[in-house]
Amino acid sequence: MIKVKMNVQTAYHGDLLRAGKVYEIDEATAKKWITSKLAEEVNEEAAE
């Protein structure tokens, strides 16, 4: 699982994911979203 910050609002597995919020998503989906600029990967070490 990877934490991502959404750039857009989308539905995922019946849940509404809002832009600007951080969510934990499976790695394969997260990589697709990051590549297509739908989301940004959250660096957990920088947040601490």
Features of the shown structure:
single chain; 48 residues; alpha+beta; three-stranded antiparallel β-sheet; two-stranded antiparallel sheet; 2 helices; 5 strands; 27% helix
Overall, the morphology is: globular
Structural category is alpha+beta
Count of distinct strands: 5
What order do the strands of the largest sheet run in, or round the barrel if closed? 4-1-5
What is the H/E order? EEEEHEH
The biggest beta sheet reads:
3 strands, antiparallel
Task: Give the N-to-C terminal Cα separation.
Answer: 19 Å
Poorly predicted ranges (pLDDT <50, ≥5 residues)? none
Q: Approximately how much beta-strand content do the residues carry? A: 35-45%
Helix content: 25-40%
Rg over CA atoms, rounded to whole Å, is 10 Å
What's the helix count? 2
Mean pLDDT: 91
Give a description of the structure.
The structure is a single chain. With 48 residues, the chain is α+β, with helices and mostly antiparallel strands. 27% of the residues lie in helices and 38% in strands. It has two helices and five strands; from the N terminus they run ββββαβα. The chain has helices at 27-35, 44-47; strands spanning 2-6, 10-12, 15-17, 22-25, 39-41. The two termini are 19 Å apart.
